[in-house]
Amino acid sequence: MTNLQIAIFGVALIFVMTVAGSVMVYFFKNTINEKFNKIFLGFAAGVMIAASVWSLLIPAIDMSNNQGLAGWIPAAVGFVAGGLVLLGIDKLVPHFHVEGHVEEGLPSKLSMSSKLFLAMTIHNIPEGLAVGFAFGAAFLSGERAMFLAALGLAIGIGLQNFPEGAAVVLPLKKEYGNTNQAFGMGVISAVVEPIAAIIGILLAYYGAGGIMMPWLLAFAAGMMIYVTVEELIPEAHLGEHSDFGTWGLMIGFMVMMILDVALG
Fold first, then answer.
1. What is the mean pLDDT of residues 119-136?
2. pLDDT tens digits for 21-71?
3. What SS3 class is residue 104?
């Protein structure tokens, strides 16, 4: 595969895996088994944490050092900025978290299904941007190793998108009372990821010119960690069987770490 083909495959993968997970709405009556759901949520959290460290923050620090900057400055500033942006989105955009039965954002007359959909969309944006920034950095460098590292990130996020896609469409099925409509909304929310990825590539390649890459990578890491700590980890440990969420997180972290080291 050429470098361009690797990038296309990686961006398409994160979309396809979310859609594949959404297909599970046709195989479950109502909800996923609680233990499996906690494993899935924990796995997603582990992948996000490992990806933020190995695929985003460490490369950001290395790039900063190569530019003659103190490596921790862009990493720290970008990381905090990413978290603050998602905090602002959380406070402004009306959305609903199913597992915790928590409604956030400004008061709104939107339907519950719309708020569920917005929650899914908010979650998908950081993942798409992270993949886009990683491939943007690869295009700037032109190095095969960078493309493979970005592909590893895409594979890791794709793996956690499958159970995540299943977990989010089932509540929509219950809300809508229509399986096809729930699946359609899952697909629409999945489209956000490749769009965000393409925006990330364009920002990195044309807007940053290499100088801003460390800041952008750290920014994506901050967004991903915010989502992980705000949503995935608490939801993986609600109620009984929290140890399933813990082991899911450890396995997800390990899988993403292996992917990054093996392909990086």
1. 87
2. 889 888 876 666 777 778 888 888 899 899 899 889 998 999 888 888 888
3. strand
Nearest to 262 by CA among 181, 133, 153, 169: 153
The type of residue at 171 is P
List beta partners, residue 104: 95
pLDDT at 100 over 60: no
pLDDT one-digit tens code per residue, 228-237: 888 788 877 7
Structure pTM?
Answer: 0.84
How far apart are the C-alpha atoms of 58 and 228, rounded to whole Å? 18
Contact 180/82 with Cβ under 8 angstroms? Answer: no
Nearest residue to 47 (alpha-carbon basis) of 196, 254, 194? 254
Q: How far is CA 178 from CA 31, 60, 134, in A?
A: 14, 44, 37
Kindly state the tokens that stand for 207.
């807007």
Please report, as a single letter, which amino acid is at residue 87.
Answer: L
Measure the CA–CA gap between 144 and 121, rounded to whole angstroms: 31
Cβ-Cβ contacts under 8 Å for 5 (sequence gap 6 or more)? none
